[in-house]
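Quiz preparation item.
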């Protein structure tokens, strides 16, 4: 068993590790090994605030297109409810897993929480760990009635710590109170006045499923009215610069179509050298349109096939 624990560090832990609410840092690093940047004390990738801000300006389609090209086909979920559809939000995922409760599992978990000096009910434990720009992302197995993970009290605490919102495959309660928290938003399975019952919080900062998407701790979360998309930390920079470039192409293309300079057939296909040259001149004439530095753009265009 000792040898197996060494060979499969993220899948097989010692008994002591299994009893932890938050897995060992090595487990989080194992699953996000392609990330080479800064991590928090738990091992979560720390995507920069600058990249998060720029990601917020991209459309879901722009992000989705890059992820699909990279082979990430299971990162988007939609069809749920948003407290404020007109107020998108972005942040770093703090993942939490809930399961239907059973006494032989929940009692040991409660004792583990007490041993780790965690305070209150288990649905508040992740909130105590939140930092600014975190998004509390919970797999609540789709439960809404008696599956409301927070109300306005916990919502106020979440926003005070994270300045963002939550993504729950579960429900929330106290909509009237939550809507009074200026800046707070949520993307949830539904709203219900009931209290949380018969749910066990089984892990924080673990891989989870949100609908048809897989989410890892530290993923960048982008929630808009179309749905929510989870960007692996190591791909955020590529997603952002590619999305920004596509946005610039579209602005140029739309302007040329409005002016009648090129036909739709010319713009909506692989560009000729003439159009590429016109685009570069347009960039020089409109530096205020660049959401990235010119060096970032030039470096990106060197490797692009257009």
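Solution:
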């Amino acid at each position: 068993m000792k040898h197996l624990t060494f060979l499969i560090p993220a899948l097989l832990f010692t008994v002591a590790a299994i009893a932890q609410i938050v897995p060992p840092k090595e487990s989080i690093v194992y699953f996000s090994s392609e990330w080479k940047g800064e991590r928090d004390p738990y091992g979560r990738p720390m995507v920069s605030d600058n990249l998060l801000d720029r990601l917020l300006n991209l459309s879901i389609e722009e992000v989705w297109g890059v992820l699909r090209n990279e082979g990430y086909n299971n990162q988007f979920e939609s069809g749920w409810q948003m407290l404020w559809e007109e107020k998108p939000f972005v942040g770093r995922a703090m993942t939490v897993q809930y399961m239907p409760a059973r006494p032989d599992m929940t009692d040991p978990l409660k004792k583990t929480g007490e041993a780790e000096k965690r305070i209150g009910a288990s649905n508040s434990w992740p909130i105590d760990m939140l930092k600014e720009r975190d998004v509390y992302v919970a797999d609540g197995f789709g439960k809404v009635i008696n599956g409301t993970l927070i109300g306005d009290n916990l919502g106020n605490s979440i926003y005070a710590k994270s300045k963002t919102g939550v993504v729950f495959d579960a429900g929330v309660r106290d909509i009237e109170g939550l809507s009074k928290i200026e800046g707070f938003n949520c993307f949830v399975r539904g709203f219900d006045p009931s209290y949380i019952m018969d749910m066990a919080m089984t892990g924080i900062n673990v891989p989870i499923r949100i609908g048809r998407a897989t989410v890892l701790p530290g993923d960048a979360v982008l929630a808009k009215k179309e749905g929510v998309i989870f960007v692996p930390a190591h791909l955020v920079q590529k997603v952002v610069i590619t999305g920004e470039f596509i946005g610039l192409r579209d602005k140029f293309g739309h302007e040329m179509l409005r002016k009648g300079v090129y036909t739709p057939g010319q713009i909506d296909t692989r560009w000729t050298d003439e159009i590429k040259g016109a685009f570069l001149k347009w960039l020089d004439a409109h530096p205020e349109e660049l959401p990235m530095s010119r060096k970032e753009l030039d470096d990106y265009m060197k490797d692009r096939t257009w």
